[in-house]
Design a protein that fits this description.
Elements lengths: L13 E9 L2 E8 L4 E8 L6 E9 L3 E10 L5 E9 L8 E9 L6 E10 L1 E9 L2 E8 L7 E10 L6 E11 L9
Antiparallel strand pairs: 1-2, 2-3, 3-4, 5-6, 6-7, 7-8, 9-10, 10-11, 11-12
């Protein structure tokens, strides 16, 4: 058995890809660093003619990575978030603001919810432990040094008022990625 190419998707500086679902719809996110866009695609068609088609392009300056996180809403339903890691931008340099987007209730698009202050965030990973939700940002460097604190955040509150709040800083040297495991 071997892998066979099914589709090529044009991108500009793809730093990472993230597969996720919205309901039963399979989605694919591509962090396009060079243009500061989180490009979201939906899988369309039926096997064997399925293809990813453009769904939404979300402005996320400096985006190098993205992931999704599901949190509780005030009304008891679940809320899908798209969490991005902003590496560096022409405007802010290495001191970036990594956007967190929320899927609109009608499921038609992501909207900016809030930002997380980061320093050259190269990656973001999430995990949930019981009803608690965490995001870890791997901070790579600033204009002077690769010695940066990477940071663990916890989702506090319910949507829409909830936010990612800092819980712990870890001394790192040029952190490019992290992974939760059990």
């Amino acid at each position: 058995a071997e892998f066979t190419e099914l589709q090529r998707i044009k991108s500009d500086g793809a730093g990472s890809v993230e597969a996720f679902t919205i309901g039963s719809q399979q989605m694919l996110g591509i962090a396009e660093f060079n243009v500061g866009i989180a490009a979201i695609y939906k899988l369309a068609g039926t096997f064997p003619d399925e293809r990813f088609e453009p769904w939404q392009r979300v402005s996320a300056p400096g985006v190098g990575a993205m992931t999704t996180l599901t949190v509780d809403r005030d009304d008891g339903k679940k809320q899908l978030l798209l969490v991005t890691a902003s590496y560096v931008t022409r405007t802010t340099g290495w001191r970036t603001r990594s956007p967190v987007f929320a899927l609109k209730e009608d499921g038609t698009e992501f909207e900016r919810h809030h930002d997380v202050a980061t320093v050259g965030a190269h990656d973001v990973e999430v995990t949930s432990v019981g009803s608690r939700h965490f995001a870890f940002f791997s901070n790579d460097k600033d204009e002077r040094s690769t010695h940066q604190d990477s940071e663990l955040f916890e989702w506090v509150g319910s949507f829409p008022g909830g936010r990612l709040e800092s819980r712990q800083r870890l001394a790192t040297d040029g952190a490019h990625a992290a992974e939760f495991f059990s």
